[in-house]
Structures are given as structure tokens and as C-alpha cells.
Amino acid sequence: MKSGLVAVVGRPNAGKSTFVNAFLSKKVSIVSPKAQTTRDNILGIYHEKDLEIALSDTPGIFEGKEGLYKLMLKNVKGALQGADCVFYLIDASKGDNEGEAKTIKDLRLSIPLIIGYNKIDLVTVPEGQAAREFFTNAFPNAKFIELSALRNYGLAECKEAFKAYMPEGPAFYEENRYSDHGQEFMAREVIREKMLRFLKDEIPHTAAVKIDSFTKKGDSISIEATVYVDSKGHLPIVVGKNGEMVKKISMAARQQMEKDFHAHVSLYLDCKAAPNWRSSAKWLAYLGYAGND
User: Fold this and answer.
1) Same structural domain for residues 161 and 197?
2) Are residues 77 and 139 in the same domain?
3) What confidence score (pLDDT) does residue 52 get?
4) How far apart are CA 237 and CA 182, in angstroms?
5) Which of 69, 167, 169, 290 could form a cystine bridge with 285, CB 3.0-4.6 A?
6) What's the predicted TM-score (pTM) here?
7) Containing domain of residue 152, as a range?
8) Of the candidates 46, 56, 86, the residue with the CA atom closest to the CA atom of residue 171
9) What pLDDT is recorded for position 119?
10) Within this chain, do residues 22 and 119 fall inside the same structural domain, yes or no?
11) What is the DSSP string of 83-146?
């Protein structure tokens, strides 16, 4: 039996969550075209006969001033500890090979590195060949894989690359378990996902969701949650005229949860202002982010 941990890291919007979901053929992380969607380390677990691969989906590597961003960067570094290999994902369409190489070097890795050149369908063949040559020369001990997580291209090659670094050992998770987070956490993330979908500009990134109550009874789930925004001026935007926006977010989130949880879901969503919560240790702890410290 082989079992181990792969730290999936990279810059914002490299496609890390899309990759983890595609690799598992299950949704364990929310996705959005907007950067900084993932805030927590989320473990996705791949099961196969005599093989278990735990993938740690991490926040995008980003140097922000607020306490939230410092915690997110600490989560990335924490994921590297205990990992058997690093899968550094690159958005090929950005064309910033030099910048990506610097970010990799700044991680000061002491474990095997696999470079995933993602969104390969968005670049030309010469661009892909040039990137392979560049990264092979910059990191001669690393494996370079071209892939498109969105189109399920290159996933088999990724699995074989991960497997090569998985040590012999027992399985750590039950075969029917695909994530280290439960439904309450996923409920919070689904609400955030719908906010990223419906709200513009920076507002979703300055908002947090707290699950106030989560009750299961039979095949029904009742949830009460609160959206906190870090500016009173953002509150009417999230609520919307006559409450239409928060209703839109709530309805879309409820429908997604019913699909994911295979249960009837009742969702009550409130909105409040918590000025500058991203820089407050007290608020970060209250909203569940300091727990990743």
C-alpha cells in the first residue's frame, strides 16, 4: 500500500481547486474565475487499490498586508511541512515563466517538485515547448507536466508522478471519505462561491461567512449563516435592493448544497458589517481563520 500527501501550491487563479476537483472526480473545493477564492487548506483524498493520495489544496501565494492574507500564506507554508512532494501549478496563459520560477525558488523546497503547466490549451505549441525548456533548465530535478485541469487532460500523468513519491504505508482515511472537511465547512464555502459569482469587484474578497447553526434531521438540513463585510458601505450592495441580492445568493447556495449533500436544505442568510475584520485577530478567530495558524 502506498499513501502520502501532495501539497498543491501556486499563485492565485492557477487552477489549483479545479485540478483537485478534477483529479478526484468530486467537488471538494469551490472554484471561481476570481483570484484568492481558496482561503483554507482543503484536503482532497484520492482512493485506488493499494494507493491513497491526499491532495492539499492551498490558498494562492500572495503577499497581502491584512492579517487574513498572512494567515493564508502561513497555510501554504504549513502544507509543505509533512508533504511527500509539491505540485506547483502554473497558469500557462499568463506567460510569466520568470516570475513563476522566482516564486518556486522563494519556497525553498526540500522535497520533490512537480511542475504542472496548467491551461495548456490556452497557449501555442511553441509557447509550451519554450516553457518546458525553461523550467527543465531552471529546475533540472523537477518533473514538468503539461495539463488542462478544466478539460481533464494530463491527469493520468499527474497521478503516476504523485505515485512515484508516495511512501509505503497504511491508508489514513476510509475509502468513502474524499475530504477532511465536513458539510458545515462546505456550506460556508458554497455561500462564498455564490458571492464570488454574483458580486462584483473586491466585495466577495472582503467578506466572510460564519455558519451560526447547522442542524441535520433525517434527510433535511437547516442552516443559519451570516455574511460579514468589512465596510458598512458594502452592506447595501450585498443585501441589494429590497433584499434581492442576498436572496439570489441564498437561493443559488441552497440549490448547490441540495445537489452536493443529497438532502433538502433550508438556508437563512443574514448580513452584517464587521469593519476591518481581515486585520483583527479577534474577528479572524471568530470567523474560523485563526484556527489555521
Assistant:
1) no
2) yes
3) 95
4) 30
5) 290
6) 0.77
7) 2-165
8) 46
9) 97
10) yes
11) -SEEEEEEEGGG--HHHHHHHHHHT---S-EEEEEE-GGGS-HHHHHHHHHHHHHH-TTSEEEE
Percent of all residues in the chain with a pLDDT value above 90, rounded to a whole number? 63
106 and 23, same structural domain?
yes
Largest CA distance in the chain: 59
Q: Which of 139, 165, 191 is the last residue of a domain?
A: 165
- The answer to whether residues 122 and 187 belong to one domain is no
Q: Three-state SS string across 157-210, please?
A: HHHHHHHHHCCECCCCCCCCCCECCCHHHHHHHHHHHHHHHHCCCCHHHHEEEE
Report if residue 284 sits inside a domain.
Answer: yes
Tens of pLDDT, residues 188-202:
999 999 998 898 766
Mean pLDDT of the chain: 89
Into how many domains does the chain fold? 2
CATH code where residue 101 lies: 3.40.50.300
